[in-house]
Amino acid sequence: MPSMAAQFNAMPRKNQLAVIWGTPIGICVLLCYWAWHDLGKLGKVNPELATPVIVQRDQPTSLWAGIEETLTQIKVQDDIIARKDKVDRDLAALQGEIKTAQERLPQESEKAEMRDMIERLAREIPKDIGTVELKSVNIVDAGDRGDTRTITFQTDLAGDQDGIIKYIDSLEKNTRFMAVQTLTIRAGTVSIDPASKKLAYGLHNVHMDIVTYVYNPVKK
Question: Which helix (H) or strand (E) segment is 219 a member of?
Answer without folding.
Answer: none
